[in-house]
């Protein structure tokens, strides 16, 4: 799950940067603008994923079932 979010965020950064380069901005400036413009959505996406995964990681609520061990039949 974390890899998917990180990949999506990096694709958005690169895409935004390439759009700026196609508009005539130098590569360094395009990269800085992409980072500055997209940092808030990247942080919000990552934070939402982290907050959503906490109950499952701690074993609360609906995620509890995936954290319990099932013993083998004797």
Mean of the pLDDT scores? 82
Assess the beta-strand content as a share of residues: under 5%
Helix content class: over 70%
Derived from helix and strand composition plus strand pairing, the structural class reads mainly alpha
Please indicate the count of domains. 1
The counted number of beta strands is 0
Structural account:
With 74 residues, this protein is an all-alpha fold. It has one domain (2-60). It contains three helices and no strands. Helix 1 (2-22) packs antiparallel against helix 2 (27-58). The longest helix has 32 residues, at 27-58. It is rod-shaped, with a radius of gyration of 19 Å.
List keywords for this structure.
74 residues, mainly alpha
Describe how the helices and strands are arranged.
Blueprint: H1 2-22, H2 27-58, H3 64-67
Structure, briefly:
The chain is an all-alpha fold and 74 residues long. The protein has 3 helices and no strands.
């Amino acid at each position: 799950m974390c890899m998917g979010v990180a990949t999506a965020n990096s694709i958005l950064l690169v895409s935004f940067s390439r759009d700026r380069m196609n508009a005539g901005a130098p590569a360094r400036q395009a990269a800085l603008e992409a980072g500055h413009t997209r940092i808030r959505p990247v942080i919000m996406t990552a934070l939402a994923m982290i907050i959503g995964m906490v109950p499952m990681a701690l074993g609360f609520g609906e995620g509890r079932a995936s954290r319990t061990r099932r013993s083998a039949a004797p």
